[in-house]
Amino acid sequence: MLDRQRTRRESPHAVRVEDVIPAEILDGVADARSASRKIQAVKDFYAKIARDSAGALALLSPALVEGTAGELVRTWSAMDAIDVQEADTQIKPDGSILAVATLHRPDGALVRVTQLFRVADSGGLITEAELVSAQYM
């Protein structure tokens, strides 16, 4: 009777994922999920700049809000639109995100910006943001 009350986790016949799938594959899956979350955090950041600058600032670490990154958010919030160029946005081997976006200025001009971001592994907070380039198109 006691055996029937065991939970699935306590079962002597349970198979652990680690015993079936090599650690390298599990690590790769975890890395892919982490990369996807980091890229999504950057996309969310850009999406919020154009419509909710306070929301965009909330995605930055406090040190960034007070610095140049915070100034850029406040300036870029005046843009008509910001389009992330997904084909050009990538995760680097060190885990940073290289993001490319097109800013649509109110006067009709387009500016292509490239930024390098670091995103916290937990919480999705952007901890570093560096403007790599900005070019009028």
Describe, in plain words, how this protein is organized in 3D:
With about 140 residues, the chain is an alpha+beta fold. It has a single domain (about 15-135), classed as Nuclear Transport Factor 2, Chain: A (Roll). About 40% of the residues lie in helices and about 25% in strands. It is built from five helices and five strands. It has helices spanning about 15-20, 25-50, 55-60, 60-65, 70-75, and strands spanning about 80-85, 90, 95-105, 110-120, 125-135. Strands 1, 2, 3, 4 and 5 form a five-stranded antiparallel beta sheet that branches. A hairpin with a 6-residue loop joins β4 and β5 (about 125-135). The longest helix is centred in the N-terminal third of the chain and has 29 residues, at about 25-50. It is globular, with a radius of gyration of 21 Å. This is SnoaL-like domain-containing protein. It comes from Amycolatopsis mediterranei (strain U-32).
In short:
The chain is 39% helix and 26% strand. The protein has helices at residues 17-20, 23-51, 53-58, 62-66, 68-76; strands at 81-84, 90-91, 97-104, 110-119, 126-136. It is α+β, with helices and mostly antiparallel strands and 137 residues long.
Total DSSP helices = 5
- The CATH architecture is Roll
What is the molecular shape? globular
Q: How many beta strands in the DSSP annotation?
A: 5
Number of domains: 1
Secondary-structure element order, N to C: HHHHHEEEEE
CATH topology assignment:
Nuclear Transport Factor 2, Chain: A
- Main sheet? 5 strands, antiparallel
Strand content: 25-35%
Task: Report the end-to-end length measured between terminal Cα atoms.
Answer: 74 Å
Percent helix among the residues? 25-40%
Quickly give the structural class. alpha+beta
The CATH class, by name, is Alpha Beta
Low-confidence stretches: 1-8, 21-30
Question: If you compute it from the alpha carbons, what radius of gyration comes out, rounded to the nearest whole angstrom?
Answer: 21 Å
- For the residues shown, what is the average pLDDT? 81
